[in-house]
Amino acid sequence: MRTRRGLYYPRADVCLEKKVVKITGFAGDNMGCRKRRRTSPESIGKRDFFYALPDDLVIYVLSKLSSTARCPSDFANALVACKRLNSLALHPLVLSKASQKMFAIKARNWSESSRRFLKDCADAGNIEACYTLGMILFYCLENRESGASLLAKAAINLHAPALYSLAVIQFNGSGGSKNDKDHRAGVALCARAAFLGHIDALRELGHCLQDGYGVRQNVVEGRRFLVQANARELAAVLSSAGAASNKFMRSWLTWSPHPNLNLSHRHPAVPGCPLLSDFGFNVPAPEAHPANRFLAEWFSAQGGVPGPGLRLCSHIGCGRPETRKHEFRRCSVCGAVNYCSRACQALDWKLRHKAGCAPVERWLDDEGDGFVGNEAVNGNDDVIAES
């Protein structure tokens, strides 16, 4: 069969090149490792099956590989295989199909080549690369303008996490002053992300409606959104565990007719998803996005302090830092934890903070910070009330 480049697919009876193996040592003796002689099809006068494949077929295979990669090394191994794979793997079509997990770069491995690779993927139209690089630039490298631009590019292409991240930026006025907060814009972005199925955005929207935060207060509608967020969370966990055995599912999915009871004594080794306890379920916590894991690792390497007087979001699955002092809201009970959003506060409250939240009087005795009742006198007027 003839291809567009004028090549023919080789027949099954085409003889493949015989691989010559020679045992040599480091100095040329016979005590070394096994080494394969590199030969090209042109040098031996025979047709090689791989080199006879047309480029469009190899690009299609590499696109499938990049879209199903489970870690960066799955794709990196193809880059170092040979010169042809290295050149074709960087084709814009391949980079545009790259999966979310292919960008799960460790913070300790960050380099200029990593940044350039993410930039190439973003230029190829990969919205996951736009979001990941945008988060890194905005929060870690403090390049606010470029980071926000990449997040906006992903949001325009209906990337739900990017829409939610922009909503958090609008709620907090991140990268600017306190007067740069735009609650209405944050609610609009949350509503769009919730429509696309983002659970944290739906939960944030529910809290905004309950509290009248950036929108007209509607307690009943807000509570309905919060219940819907719990239901979507349960459905997402069940669908992701569809391939698991029934025995394994029973080990982490439990139900009690009394949702308020603590089931941790029955399954002490199973980390439970916090908000599903409202329905009496105990399931594994959802996996954090690679961008959030990168942020957490990046600032953990700096001792957990993003800058002088700045704090990290206390929810372990977030990783967002403050861009100015007193940007995040503190717990109104203890004042010891702070959150970038209501969604992070709700997740962390039932995950761990509910058991360790101390009264504000005890916190004042230990730290001496400026909380009076449920209000702050140190310039941070956004206080979170636990429930």
From TrEMBL:
Tell me yes or no: is Cell wall biogenesis/degradation among this UniProt entry's keywords.
no
- Lineage, top-rank taxon, reads Eukaryota
MYND-type domain boundaries: 315-357
**Which of UniProt's keywords are assigned here?**
Metal-binding, Zinc, Zinc-finger
Q: Does the keyword Metal-binding apply?
A: yes
InterPro entries, per database record = At2g35280_TPR_dom (IPR057136), At5g50450/At1g67340-like (IPR044508), F-box-like_dom_sf (IPR036047), TPR-like_helical_dom_sf (IPR011990), Znf_MYND (IPR002893)
**TM region positions:** none
> Which SUPFAM superfamilies does the annotation name?
F-box domain, HCP-like, HIT/MYND zinc finger-like
Pfam families from the xrefs?
TPR_27, zf-MYND
Care to name a GO molecular-function term for this sequence?
A: zinc ion binding
Q: What is this protein called?
A: F-box protein
Instruction: Give the organism, scientific name.
Output: Hibiscus syriacus
